[in-house]
TrEMBL record:
SUPFAM superfamilies: Metalloproteases ('zincins'), catalytic domain
Stored InterPro entries: Peptidase_M1_dom, Peptidase_M4/M1_CTD_sf
Pfam families: Peptidase_M1
Record protein name field: Peptidase M1 membrane alanine aminopeptidase domain-containing protein
Coiled-coil ranges from the UniProt annotation: none
Peptidase M1 membrane alanine aminopeptidase domain segment(s): 238-409
One of the record's GO molecular function terms: metallopeptidase activity
Length: 453
């Protein structure tokens, strides 16, 4: 009885915290010529986390001051020998020698300068990088360009918030913060009454529009836009039909130059809904105008992976130990299913055969033994994880597999750990015998790729 009471209290606490949506208000000044970003933000309606919270900012920023609701300058830990969490340094406001309890409002001013990558490029480009390339600047929630709250007890980043932001960038033709529409520079105001993770994309670029999407920094003709949008519509229709949850968003596609040197044919993408961004490719070059289709069939799942993040990443926002499995393995699995629906079963067969060769020496930590989300490596989350999901599909069938995924999506306010995985499967109708077989053959195996038919 005591165990159930504790679980109920934890669930109530989680619901209470998640019911409070932070609000971000303030000004941003971006200097494209020097890579400098200066922010003056008031973070209000901060959830009641007691002393179990941290404020995260990109390690490239220097804090000018943190003030309370009375405009009193606060002391804070993290300015010396600071601890990192992902891309951000962690800061904790203090009251005397202790943590400031339940601050309702924090006024944070800070500035930082970042490299401008033009001729000399970085060794890596990823979503967590604040990227200046001489033409545009890109800063996502993962880069922690605005103050992110970390909920220690629930091991959760609170990245989504309502906002009112004014951006000044004298060198920028267009400025965009997701949750609002792109606006002409050099000064623009943005507002969202719906909680979202703000992404900043500013610089010298134009806007293209279709009925279903916006395209930033692209140069497609009408035919290319039409074909590209139709493929996106096909993906959304398939996911809507299969997962029984409408795809309720108008996407914004961003094309931007990578700050990492890419070999020919290399590209990557990321999602920060409703934005889907691609680096290292021209979207128009993907289109076969004569046959009104994508030139390369492998481009279809590449794009579908990002589209699938509407579900796993937005409808369900993963956390806890299986964060990467539920964020990336599910999206990759769904991208293969979308391509299988469009091109037939041989496409999926070739996909898994090709990746099985890449995984011949791979040794997986069983999902039920994962203690740290980052134990799920890039190879695990993008390549091996989809095999585990395909294995479950082999045991229970496609229809019931989508019922399981739907159950994951509609289950709210849960930690996405192994118990979540198992409980959603059982709740969706997977029998105990089926789960035991799956767990024995796939989950507990160091490498189960040979079992995929």
């Amino acid at each position: 009885m005591k165990r159930y009471l504790i679980a109920a209290l934890l669930t109530f606490a989680l619901l209470n915290v998640r019911g409070q949506t932070p609000h971000l208000k303030g000004n941003v000044d971006v200097v494209m010529a020097t890579g400098q970003i200066t922010c003056d933000f008031v973070l209000s309606n901060i959830p009641d986390l007691g002393k179990d919270y941290q404020i995260l900012l990109n390690k490239g920023f220097n804090i000018n001051a943190i003030k309370d609701s009375l405009d009193k300058t606060l002391s804070y830990s993290g300015f010396y020998n600071g601890k990192m969490r992902g891309e951000g340094l962690t800061y904790v406001p203090q009251k005397g020698d202790d943590v400031l309890t339940n601050p309702k409002l924090l006024h944070i001013t800070y500035t930082g300068a970042f490299p401008i990558y033009t001729d000399t490029l970085n060794f890596i480009d990823f979503k967590g990088l604040i990227a200046f390339n001489g033409k545009t600047v890109r800063a996502t929630d993962q880069s922690k360009w605005y103050p992110i709250i970390y909920d220690i007890k629930n091991d959760r980043l609170i990245e989504q918030m309502t906002y009112e932001i004014e951006v000044k960038s004298t060198d920028s033709k267009t400025i965009f913060v997701n949750g609002d529409v792109p606006k002409p520079g050099p000064v623009a105001k943005f507002k969202s009454d719906i909680a979202i993770a703000p992404l900043l994309f500013a610089g010298d670029y134009g806007i293209q529009k279709t009925n279903g999407a916006l395209f930033l920094n692209t140069a497609m003709n009408e035919k290319e836009l039409s074909v590209f949008e139709q493929n996106i519509a096909d993906m959304k229709t398939y996911f809507n039909k299969s997962l029984k949850i409408p795809y309720e968003t108008k996407n914004v596609f961003i094309e931007h130059a990578p700050v990492e040197k890419f070999n020919k044919g290399r590209s990557w993408g990321f999602v920060s809904f409703p934005v889907i961004a691609f680096a290292g490719l021209k979207l128009g070059d993907m289109v076969d105008k004569e046959h009104s289709q994508l030139k390369d069939s492998t481009d279809y799942p590449f794009i579908a992976h990002e589209i699938a993040h509407y579900y796993f990443g937005n409808v369900l926002q993963p956390n806890s130990t299986l964060f990467w499995f539920f964020l990336e393995s599910t999206a990759e699995y769904l991208s293969v299913k979308a391509a299988e629906d469009k091109f037939g079963k041989p496409f999926a067969t070739r996909y898994f055969q090709t990746r099985a060769k890449q995984l011949k020496d791979f040794k997986a930590v069983p999902l039920n033994a994962i203690k740290d989300m980052n134990s799920i490596s890039g190879t695990y989350r993008y390549t091996y994880g989809p095999f585990l999901l395909r294995g479950l599909e082999q045991i229970i069938g496609e229809k019931r597999m989508f019922k399981f995924l739907n159950t994951c999506l509609i289950t709210k306010n849960e930690l996405t750990d192994y118990n979540f995985f198992k409980n959603c499967a059982l709740k969706s109708g997977v029998t105990k015998n089926e789960w035991d077989t799956y767990e024995k053959d796939f989950i507990q195996s160091e490498n189960a790729v040979h079992l995929i038919k």
